[in-house]
Specification:
About 40% of the residues lie in helices and about 25% in strands. The chain is an alpha+beta fold and about 300 residues long. It has 2 domains: about 200 residues, no CATH class; about 80 residues, Beta Barrel (OB fold (Dihydrolipoamide Acetyltransferase, E2P)). The strands form 2 sheets. Strands 1, 2, 3, 4, 5 and 6 form a 6-stranded antiparallel beta sheet that branches. It has a 5-stranded mixed β-barrel with strand order 8-9-10-12-11. α1 crosses α2 and α1 crosses α7. The radius of gyration is 22 Å and the shape is globular. The relative contact order is 0.14.
């Protein structure tokens, strides 16, 4: 018999830059899909076995389906080898469609310091835990150790997210590999929950070997002192503090002739940049990712 599908397929979209022309760097595509597979495998194993995966051997598999014509979309299937999970109640499978993607969203938010996004994901997990609160006793009656009640406690839930984020540091970096290089975003579109979007600042945080988090979008006024119109890399002197900041302009307007950024560099006119910063552990700005600008 065929392997069992555990959740609704998760749509993976690679968007922007090369993907706008329906192509992208093949090595980075493969690296990203590998990272996505390892993250979903890790979270799926936790959901169905009640513990973190400690080896590469598991009965949870992640498969990729073909993209739609004219797009760079893939479908990610979370599967179980047939016959391995007969002792698990059907309720556990029903909850997986919400809990597994929500955990993926939570660990990305945890790694990147985006507390608001993590809270949204945890709310979904808490709701499912409440909805299936009788699952623990059912599991115990079946003789399967799952400690579902303990996982419902807030400290246990936060601890699981922390451990998953640590365990998946490498896969999360691989997931984000194409962003800013061959695509602008990697979007996961699970059934029933909000999209999980890895944009340029999120990717920077996921790939960084040091602790780098993503801040809130804000305005920075000053002058551009250096600019690479091909890569978007730039240097910026802030008007109030005089400090030099660096980053990347992700605004598509940069590629147009006589754009506001090139004009500002040539004329030394001050700009108000709309940017999302990445932040170092001490709270200092690591990089700016600029989405818009006005004079």
């Amino acid at each position: 018999m065929a392997d069992r599908q555990l959740i609704e397929p998760v749509k993976i979209q690679f968007a922007g830059i090369d993907a706008a022309e329906h192509r992208m760097d093949a090595l980075l595509l493969g690296k990203s899909l590998s990272g996505i597979a390892r993250v979903y495998n890790s979270v799926g194993h936790l959901h169905f076995h009640g513990q973190l995966r400690t080896s590469e051997h598991t009965d949870i598999r992640v498969q990729a389906g073909p993209p739609k014509p004219g797009t760079i979309w893939y479908l990610i299937y979370l599967m179980v080898v047939h016959g391995k999970m007969a002792v698990y109640p059907e309720l556990l499978f029903e909850a997986a469609g919400f809990v597994v993607p929500a955990f993926v969203k939570a660990i990305i938010a945890k790694k990147t310091g985006q507390g608001g996004e993590m809270d949204k994901a945890l709310d979904i997990i808490r709701h499912q835990s409440d909805q299936y609160h009788e699952l623990a006793s059912a599991m115990q009656a079946a003789g399967v150790e799952r400690e579902r009640r303990a996982e419902q406690r807030e400290d246990r839930l936060l601890g699981l997210v922390e451990m998953l984020a640590t365990q998946n540091r490498g896969p999360l970096a691989d997931l984000a590999a194409p962003v800013g290089r061959t695509v602008a975003e990697v979007r996961q579109l699970p059934h029933g929950i909000d999209p999980i979007v890895v944009d340029a600042p999120t990717a920077e945080s996921l790939r960084s070997p040091e602790e780098v988090t993503v801040g809130e979008t804000q305005r920075f006024r000053g002058t551009i002192t250096a600019l690479d119109t091909k890569t978007g890399a730039f240097k910026f002197e802030e008007a109030d503090s005089g400090r030099e900041l660096r980053g990347k302009i992700t605004d598509p307007a940069l590629t147009t002739p006589q754009n506001v950024y090139s004009h500002a560099l040539d004329t030394k006119v001050a700009l108000a940049l709309v940017a999302k910063p990445t932040l170092r552990a001490d709270g200092g700005i690591h990089k700016l990712f600029v989405s818009d600008a006005t004079n």
